Give the backbone structure.
Amino acid sequence: MTNHTAMEDFIPDPRTIKVSSGNSLVDYLQIKLWFELNSATVIRHVSQESKASLNLQFADFISHIIWSRYEDSEIDVYNLIKPNIYEKHLFF
């Protein structure tokens, strides 16, 4: 059996900030994939300005809708996308 390694692009806005551990989000995700999920996937970091990427603009838009639902109780737009969202309630 052949072990295939997948290559996945991670395209954050260049304003990505390192956490106190000194690792970037890409580092954290790679560690999680390899050591906790035993995945052979390799993440390739491809920085791109969100103004030049419709994919990033879309992700920002959806994130803002979800954030607004929980921070400001704005549910009208959230209810439109809710059928396409999987929610997992955490206890914190």
